[in-house]
Amino acid sequence: MMGGAWFQNEFGTPKAVTTEGLLARATEAVRCHLGVSVSPSWSNVALHRDCIPQYYLGHFQRVDCMRGFIKDNNLALSLIGSAYDGVSVNDVIFSGRTAVAELLGGGV
Length: 108
Hints:
There is one protein chain. By secondary structure, the protein is mainly α. 47% of the residues lie in helices and 0% in strands. The protein has 4 helices and no strands. The longest helix has 16 residues, at 19-34. The radius of gyration is 20 Å and the shape is elongated. The two termini are 30 Å apart. The model has no long low-confidence stretch (mean pLDDT 89). InterPro entries: FAD/NAD-bd_sf. This is Protoporphyrinogen oxidase. It comes from Ameca splendens.
């Protein structure tokens, strides 16, 4: 997986990017980071536009501020889910487990 918020800076506009160019970049990264020098025997390149959610700059500071307000005011509220601590399923599960552990007075 490549790209995200910096896709255009690295690869150009999505409409102008070729699958061959993306495969060449991925193959070079594998060679450079893993030392694999043979060409792939099979590949599948797909360009998915706007498919990975990303937080805006300052997101985690805002979430910390909200959690501080909740704690300081002793509110019976937990902020859980992909909108707060991570967009993957693993992040959401961990967020829920952490909130339950905090409610029960223990750690994860």
